[in-house]
Q: What sequence folds into this?
């Protein structure tokens, strides 16, 4: 960290380094120097081994800059020379200005927050992104996962999610098929967006939001992302959905979005499941150390994510009918 601070001209003396909890893929630190306060992200080494990792981060930062230029309260990386990250001893770091703010807990979300987020999402979708269009990224690849592939390893390693996973394999296969077909339909109408606009990625100073962590930025169907965001900002992620808040997101979005809302909600609502299935597969591999060795802390984190994600998907499916009804009726 000292070498990073020195090479990036962030100060001559480190006053404190505090590891921040909450990161699901990377490690984040609050670093105070004699020059300023920074949020420093140590990127996941497994992710950085992928051939497309750097280009994905670069594309995301281009969109972050574009969002800021369009009046979105976006927090992007501090550029190091002309680069978005720095490599020190085979580890990659991204540096951000430290923002004092609050990440809301689900129980602290009020209808005004849901309304603000709906408007923010609409403003992001209204951005003219033609200057960074990338045809190679437009097609969202989908696949059928081999969920049975993991069951014997899960059993051998006596994972805490074994029974839950085993009991729901048929459901995972069914949702995988339906969500894959829905994503292929959704690919007909795409915009560039944040794609991870949940509670952990918006910091609040009073009623003023600041959007962080743009690394998932890419192409997505705008109606699909609307469903995802309304879900998170109404308590769906903790299985306590508040349909007044859900409706607030939808209504605020529709009042501010310049495009059209796809009426084929019954199909698109299944597309919302696909990212959850991707996340389960990623965390299965991470918890089982398939393709990469992870430390005990990260393995434990991945195990919890598998459990939480399967339960969330089951709850999500149980709410489809009510969600679809609201999406179709809100003017």
A:
């Amino acid at each position: 960290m000292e070498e990073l601070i020195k090479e990036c001209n962030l100060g001559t003396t480190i006053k404190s380094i505090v590891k921040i909890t909450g990161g699901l893929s990377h490690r984040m630190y609050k670093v105070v120097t004699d020059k300023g306060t920074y949020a420093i992200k140590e990127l996941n080494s497994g992710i950085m081994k992928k051939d497309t990792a750097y280009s994905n981060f670069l594309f995301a930062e281009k969109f972050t800059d574009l969002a800021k230029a369009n009046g979105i309260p976006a927090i992007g990386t501090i550029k190091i020379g002309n680069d978005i990250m720095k490599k020190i001893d085979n580890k990659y770091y991204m540096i951000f200005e430290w923002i004092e703010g609050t990440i809301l807990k689900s129980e602290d979300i009020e209808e005004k927050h849901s309304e603000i987020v709906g408007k923010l999402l609409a403003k992001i979708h209204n951005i003219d992104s033609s200057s960074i269009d990338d045809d190679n990224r437009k097609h969202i690849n989908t696949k059928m996962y081999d969920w049975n592939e993991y069951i014997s390893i899960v059993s051998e390693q006596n994972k805490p999610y074994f029974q839950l996973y085993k009991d729901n394999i048929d459901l995972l296969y069914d949702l995988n098929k339906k969500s894959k077909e829905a994503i292929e339909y959704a690919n007909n109408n795409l915009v560039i967006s944040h794609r991870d606009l949940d509670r952990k990625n918006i910091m609040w100073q009073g009623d003023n939001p600041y959007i962080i962590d743009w690394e998932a930025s890419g192409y997505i169907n705008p109606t699909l992302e609307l469903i995802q965001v309304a879900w998170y900002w109404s308590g769906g992620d903790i299985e306590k959905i508040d349909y007044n808040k859900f409706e607030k997101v939808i209504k605020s979005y529709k009042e501010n979005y310049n495009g059209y809302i796809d009426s084929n909600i019954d199909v698109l609502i299944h597309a919302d499941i696909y990212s959850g299935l991707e996340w389960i597969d990623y965390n299965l591999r991470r918890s089982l150390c398939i393709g990469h060795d992870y430390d005990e802390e990260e393995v434990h984190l991945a195990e919890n994510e598998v459990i939480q994600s399967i339960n969330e998907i089951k709850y999500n499916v149980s709410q489809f009918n009510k969600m679809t009804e609201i999406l179709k009726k809100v003017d």
Q: What stands out?
A: DSSP finds 13 helices and nine strands in the chain. Residues 8 and 242 are 45 Å apart (CA to CA). The two ends are 52 Å apart (CA to CA). Residues 2-97 form a domain with the Phosphorylase Kinase; domain 1 fold (CATH 3.30.200.20).
